[in-house]
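cache lookup: miss for this entity combination. No prior model stored, computing from scratch. Input as submitted by user K.M.:
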Amino acid sequence: MEYTFRTIEKKWKEYWKEHRTFSVSNHSPKPKYYVLDMFPYPSGAGLHVGHPLGYIASDIFARYKRLKGFNVLHPMGFDAFGLPAEQYAIETGQHPIKTTEQNINRYREQLDNIGFCYDWERAVRTSDPSYYKWTQWIFLKLFHSWYDRNTQKARPIAELISIFEIDGNANIPCPADEQICLDGNCWKGLSVEEQRDILMKYRLAYLGFADVWWCEALGTVLANDEVVNGVSERGGFPVEKRRMRQWFLRITEYAERLLDGLETLDWTEAMKEMQRNWIGKSIGAEIKFVVEQASDKAITVFTTRPDTIFGADFLVLAPEHSLVDDITTPAQQSEVNAYREYVRTRSERERISEVKLVSGCFTGSFAINPITQRPIPIWIAEYVLAGYGTGAIMAVPSGDQRDHLFAKHFNIPITNIFGARYSGEEAYMAKEGTLENSGFLSGIEISKAVKMAVDAIVEAGVGQGKVNYRLRDAGFSRQRYWGEPFPIVYKEGIAFAIDELSNHSIGEQSTLPILLPEVESYQPASSGEGPLANISDWVNTPVGQRETSTMPGYAGSSWYFLRYMDPQNDHEFAGRKATDYWREVDVYVGGTEHAVGHLLYSRMWTKALYDLGFISFQEPFKKLINQGMIQGSSRFVYRVHGTNQFVTYSRRNEMQVDEIHVDVSLVDGLLLDQKRFKAWRPEFANAEFLLEDDGSYICGVAVEKMSKSKYNVVNPDDIVAQYGADTFRMYEMFLGPIDVSKPWDTKGIEGVHRFLKKLWRLYVDEQKGWIVNQELPNAQELQVIHRTIKKIGEDIERFTLNTSVSQFMICVNELASLTCHKQRVLEPLAILLAPFAPHLAEELWQQLGHSTSIMDASFPDYEEKYITENSKKYPVAVNGKTRVELEFPLDMPEEMVKQAVLSHPIIMKWLEGKAPKKIIFVKGKMINLVV
RNA sequence: GCCCAGAUGGCGGAAUUGGUAGACGCGCUAGACUCAAAAUCUGGUUUUCGCAAGGGAGUGCAGGUUCGAUUCCUGUUCUGGGCACCA
């Protein structure tokens, strides 16, 4: 009997489905374990072999945990809202619901093909009204909440109103505008409009303004992705920034907790570091500079180096800064206007990464340095961003390279406050040494001067110490169709949540979910609003207009892990019993590209839901496993320029050639199938070949991203059809460590396939059939299997699954050479294999005489006594170079070992009669003689 | 530009805590079985000098620490990911 993987895999897939083997209950006496994959966006291209890498790893882990006695939640779903589906709709007129449905079905088939143990009964898709109802619901909770800095938690906005009615905002500074100051009476005297305006400045989901890419020619707002080299990707039209009213999430209030929470997480240090840098906490000071010509106007700068205030030679404002208009002198007005026009065409990335080109513009005004009383010029420049700090800096050219380049370029005189350490050529950026030429700070160590400077600033009443975060509030509006509609209606321009208005007054669509309406066209509205603005029946309600933006992609993905816990619940986003049972995700597997987006937003949503009392934990993902990418391995043919002749790899330099991607399926290793190549595309039908001496055509190779256009995409379905899902799963793991990128090479899969066939032959003989016997294993066999049990268990715990596959190979090679067919060895081996090659393991398990799924077996324990060796073959080195291997019992006294080593002829030869200076003996490791 | 990773044979990779560099597999190669092929099995395979025994070099590059460095430190080059509206 051969290893007939097709029959076996089909049989067990049907068995699992029929017996609901992977259906998970929220009630179990077993301890819980939650294993989650980052859910996919179902693109039209389907899955390629790179996508399932992480899914296979987490599937192995989930199955392992189940064998270890846990009740394992391992769900999958789809992040189904997004730009590509909408783009496709614009191009083809097909409704995103339809194309998304098709794509999801395709993904589902491809995933099922690989034999994952997902509980599909729990599947979610973010574009389902039954799902986005709760995305909208959470948005409303954020809208109805504010962040209490005193208790460091979110609270209902109703409680804020109660406080305002008594004390005003005396103890609750406004996060959006610290100038706002009111007492209880003052609050009560405000109009509803004024009150709501102030409340908006406290809400966790709030309306503000942000710059978006506007493309006049396309009449639409573009995503960063759709802007390439300063023009629209579609059509190449000019784009510019336009300020629009947008929803935001006040994630900045959570900055400190997001930072602190990292300490409790089992994530890689690199991942935590990226989040820390993104949050970007910096400690410094805000300093107020009064404008010389208009003493009622002041510019507040944020600096991390208040100690350098004596070296401040000019101020730089972001070109968008609200004071620019006020301070620009008539003489400079046209230059300032022109410069601001230019900046509107620049992306933030370009603005901050530009190093060669220094640009800026003088406003004509001067500001008074509040400590030195010296007037200094006020400039605007693109390297200062409106959204960071106060949108204004004090430039210290002798202490900051950026400022230094600027001063040199515009011939602004530089004050040296570092003496000889400032070269005049480059700024002195180090925070060591003493300050000079700095008034009362002269001669003071920089480390001490920072605090002294802040004290002086506070004393002078011109500023204060300040902690600043690079983190910005998260833009939450998209001028798009394919996303969650907002449950918001504008009544005379004021935003109301639908639950603040009576059902009657809004008319239809007055309760959650606010359904995404059908549209005629996916083109944006003329105003720059999204396509929803075109549906006047939907937009207009008896009380006012609905919000026409939709929510961004990360809305649905910020909380989906909670929905899996209780996916059918139609009166809560997830029942408290369910969330209390499953709690946070124990292991989350996904790519590092989500390091700061999705992973930060999910953390914030979790904290907000925790604060508001809806869940009992405040971090969503306890342990994070990063998964690398599988790259494509492209193949090239070389066409002689201007002809239809193709020259083989080794001769390509003999003539002028064009390198052309050739479909990898037409190539076996490097060998081109010439016949199929001719049939591939009409223009190659009459191709002629200039071949190697042996008549073969050898292709060129490059490792690139897997993509359709490079003809290097490998579909898992094809691999599964040819080798089986079990081989595919093990091969993906065998390729290398989970977290690094590596190229796909179909050729290599045969080794893994051979291994599974070899393993099969331990159990089944081609002629005799089932050959497992009941003999007792000997010491060697016990050592092999117990070593394997140990290694596989440790590897899975550490997610080093590539070495597990190696260990399986070693184990099978050894058992084969021992001709071991003993049930007591092969039964535990089948269980070890179950997470990796589940179909095959089930088949073996059944034939071993079991009537239930192998998933209900227990992972075997190893016994140290079968593994331990009592002697060690020591490498013996002289001066670090290994000269001989000598075997000694592990319990042999050190002195005796040394004696034996010294009297060994090879060692004596290397010692040349000299006595070694030192003998290093590391028990169980090595011996080194130093001469 | 900034932040975070990575670099080891012809290829994917192993070396878990500073202790035999190249496990395991691919590829290549020699052989067994076969009329032949497939499948399977056995041996060889970092490189260099050498008939061999044996020696030299070697983990991107340049230094350093150490009895000993793929592993730690400093600098540097290249590649990948992210940089706030791709998901």
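stored under new cache key. The first helix of chain A runs from residue 5 to 19.
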